[in-house]
Design goal:
By secondary structure, the chain is mainly alpha-helical. It has 20 helices and no strands.
Length: 503
């Protein structure tokens, strides 16, 4: 029953995430057409701000998710859990007010001294920056409620909620702008409405899930319950901060270097590549609470099985998608936008970020294992070394070589981490698992890479977009078939569940 619920959670997460990827990417050409590249550059800046704002999380969101899973496993009392939630609510509210307030206050400085405006009115940009500050604060606060909901493994409900909010946020805004004007101000006003609605829904659901207490129990307003978790939380905070810096620093640097219109095109390519991370995100939200619970129940073999199985699944689905997107970058952009010049310029950026993001989804797995065990010391050390060596490299590459330089730095960062540090972490915490882990994904990754690039080498893509689209679909399908056949786990599933019915 538990296995079925985990599979359902993963499936629900993937359905919602794939839906999010499809509508967010499909809608971009419409944004560019009706709002213009410069206005979309401001939208990209908004997305980057949300990423940077997560630096203020201090590891609290994954901490509440883990403690929720621990409560489910019986390792935490109802009163203790409610006291922890109250303490974290106070901290989250305070940080949201301070962080959002600072963004709101410095809108003039950002507009006048950082963004390279060309045609947008200064008054409109100032207004939008103020809306951004409120939206960023609200959406960041929802992390607390998402942590509780995912910790209770209500992933199906969370997935449905994500679908509803994403529908409003992306295609929904077009309907709003149809009536109120295709302006950047209309866009951000509607984003504020959606942010308030999302906050209210998630807060309400979290409150329902919280354990009920008898009248004699006193929750109080103390921050004391957080103190025993500070070491764990701060370790997560540092490693998360490094990850945010590595994923957002190039975007931040380039937002101050490129004209806002060019930054819009860069954002477009990076957002498409970000679909790879979005497809991979559900696996962590599904397996992290499950692995934490198995660790709490001392079911170590089950934990190991979930870890290896999830790795192989991600390799077949996510990494394969990243390889295909990198190989087909130019024809995909041309079919999608209808702009051959844009496709030619953005394709090299898309290739690098797609590959880097695919590698990242694999490199993140040892973190899930350490998270479940409640000891992130090695993750802390690895990210500290990465920060010291590679953050300056990203800044230098972005300033000297622009988007292409940032892309190459991103790929090399992820590849170095995967090959060197991941193996070391496995050796230290699970000595017998490293070879098994690499064997989970190397066959499917290697075969897919060879097949995809061989096909691209011999394929001549049609200038007619609908024919080129069919060619892309055919190559993608063939590559996924190759990935499935190359996966031991996938072959086992096919034998047990498909062939068995006919034999």
């Amino acid at each position: 029953m538990k296995t079925k619920s985990l599979k359902l959670n993963i499936l629900a997460s993937y359905v919602s995430q794939i839906y999010l990827v499809i509508i967010s990417i499909a809608i971009l050409p419409i944004y560019m057409k009706y709002m213009g590249a410069e206005a979309y550059g401001l939208v990209g800046f908004f997305a980057m701000l949300q990423g940077l704002f997560s630096l203020l999380d201090f590891g609290l969101t994954p901490t509440i998710s883990r403690q929720t899973a621990q409560y489910n496993a019986g390792a935490e009392t109802a009163l203790g859990f409610r006291q922890l939630f109250r303490s974290l609510s106070l901290i989250f509210t305070g940080i949201a007010c301070i962080g959002g307030g600072l963004l709101f206050y410095f809108n003039h400085y950002i507009a006048e001294h950082w963004l390279k405006l060309e045609n947008l009115a200064m008054s409109d940009v100032l207004f939008c920056l103020q809306i951004m500050a409120i939206c960023v604060a609200l959406r960041w606060m929802t992390g607390l409620y998402r942590g509780v909901i995912s910790g209770f493994e209500r992933i199906v409900w969370l997935s449905v909620s994500n679908i509803v909010i994403a529908t409003l946020r992306f295609p929904g805004v077009l309907l709003y702008m149809y009536y109120f004007g295709f302006t950047i101000k209309s866009f951000f006003i509607f984003q504020l409405i959606v942010a308030v609605l999302e906050f209210a829904i998630l807060a309400f659901k979290a409150q329902i899930l919280l354990p009920k207490l008898n009248q004699s129990a006193r929750i109080g307003w103390s921050l004391q319950p957080v103190k025993p978790l500070l070491s764990f939380a701060l370790t997560i905070a540092f490693t998360s901060s490094v990850w945010v810096l590595l994923t957002q620093l190039d975007k931040f640097v380039l937002s101050g270097i490129l004209p806002l219109s060019e930054y819009g095109y860069f954002t477009l390519a990076v957002l498409v590549a970000g679909g790879i991370l979005q497809i991979g995100a559900p696996i962590s939200s599904a397996i992290m609470p499950r692995m934490a619970r198995l660790q709490g129940e001392k079911k170590y073999e089950e934990l190991k099985a979930v870890y290896l199985g999830a790795t192989e699944f991600v390799a077949v689905v996510v990494v394969t998608a990243g390889i295909i997107l990198a190989a087909l970058a130019q024809p995909v952009l041309h079919v999608w936008t209808g702009d051959a010049v844009l496709a030619q310029k953005a394709a090299p950026i898309l290739q690098l970020y797609a590959l880097g993001n695919a590698i990242l989804t694999l490199g993140a797995f040892p973190y899930y294992l350490q998270y479940a065990k409640g000891n992130l010391r090695l993750h802390f050390i690895g990210n500290l070394i990465t920060a010291i060596l590679l953050i300056p490299a990203i800044i230098w590459a972005a300033k000297n070589y622009g988007a292409i330089g940032a892309g190459w730095a991103w790929v090399l960062i992820q590849l170095t981490y995967l090959l060197l540090w991941v193996s070391y972490v496995h050796k230290m915490i699970e000595p017998d698992i490293n070879l098994q882990w690499f064997k989970c994904f190397l066959p499917s990754v290697g075969s897919t890479a060879i097949v995809s690039y061989a096909l691209i080498h011999f394929m001549n893509f049609s200038e007619q977009r609908y024919i080129a689209f069919l060619q892309i679909c055919a190559i993608s399908l063939l590559c996924f078939v190759v990935a499935v056949i190359s996966s031991k786990q996938a072959r086992s599933i096919i034998r047990l569940r498909v062939l068995k019915r006919f034999l």
